């Protein structure tokens, strides 16, 4: 998720732009003067800067000049309430990416930021290719969803990415836990270091220690040469321990030592290996219940869950189904060299009625199959699996009525989600807004739109 730095001496402007940009899917940092902005840029370079021209101490033109000395590829969008032709020309000649005038046209503002971020990410990708590195996929391309639940996930990623804190990612199978781990890594100071994934459920217990910590030559039958483990390979980067709930108690004890001491020995070795690694872990299990059952160490559990990010199942963010489905449709249509453009209203209605026990992974597989099977440019109900046309996992409230448009279906889902959350929080708007990842103003607007203010 891209990071935007907003620099303005007016706190209200910073707060307003933070709200607008977070709603558009960006992480946001703010500064109210030039020196603080330069400090933030040196600590954690953003993907774009929104910079007010008229500020005390250092004005925007001076700050932009210093930014360009630090990183001349960082796009700077200048803002001012005093727009003149001369100022615009001066700004663009000085190297500004663009120039916008207050009061803002919000659509234009968001579009300008999007263009700047895209340019920055493409420049980083080109640089990676020149240096022989494989660039990571753009995080905004891989994490899809604008529902309040996903906006809350994005914000949590933004809050933890810049630190080295251990993060536990929880959610059902198929919800996208690895994507969250990659987004944290890609938006951290370790982004240029390795991202090493290990699936703890896929490796036999007798090989797990060797996989994690490596082994020396002759350590066991078949160990013909020294082999570095995943922790060693992840030095100065991030290691992602997927399905960590499957680790044995013996391996958990060794992992705890790495978390505490940042050191280990290879299997069959005596040399102490010290590493600088950030640990991210994921599970679809209730680890607290596993602790109570004695299958997971309590001390390791508390070490891992310094910060927890919970990924909602797809059935709890049904408003994201259309955008996810169309993204997968575009991807697989391109891969299959076909010109499939959309779903028929009837096919989309079936997607919206289904309960998605396999979550986003199941939706992706359904879309791939539909693209392969369809004979025309539009996905029809007969292109979808039998399980969707005759579902055992239909959502409980069959709210889709004949003749409803997709917009009406999505609006009805949104109304149900908001109403259910209000009821769960005894109609406390502050608590409801927090649970949905909204601010109070946005919640009020949606309640008014859906007739929930009475």
What does this structure look like?
By secondary structure, this protein is α/β, with parallel strands linked by helices. It folds into 4 domains: 3-130, 3-Layer(aba) Sandwich (Rossmann fold); 148-310, P-loop containing nucleotide triphosphate hydrolases (Rossmann fold, 3-Layer(aba) Sandwich); 315-389, Helicase, Ruva Protein, domain 3 (Orthogonal Bundle), CATH 1.10.8.60; 406-449, Homeodomain-like (Arc Repressor Mutant, subunit A, Orthogonal Bundle), CATH 1.10.10. The protein contains 20 helices and 16 strands. It has helices at 11-23, 34-43, 60-70, 85-93, 106-130, 139-142, 148-161, 177-186, 205-213, 230-233, 249-261, 287-293, 298-304, 321-335, 345-353, 359-373, 386-389, 406-424, 429-436, 440-449, and strands at 3-7, 27-31, 48-52, 76-80, 98-101, 167-170, 195-199, 214-215, 227-228, 237-242, 263-265, 272-274, 277-283, 307-310, 342-343, 378-379. Helix 7 (148-161) crosses helix 8 (177-186). It is globular and about 75 Å long. The two termini are 37 Å apart. This is DNA-binding transcriptional regulator NtrC. Pfam families: AAA_lid_14, HTH_8, Response_reg, Sigma54_activat. Keywords: Activator, ATP-binding, Cytoplasm, DNA-binding, Nitrogen fixation, Nucleotide-binding, Phosphoprotein, Repressor, Transcription, Transcription regulation, Two-component regulatory system. It comes from Desulfofundulus thermosubterraneus DSM 16057. InterPro entries: AAA+_ATPase, AAA_lid_NorR, CheY-like_superfamily, Homeodomain-like_sf, HTH_Fis, P-loop_NTPase, Sig_transdc_resp-reg_receiver, Sigma_54_int.
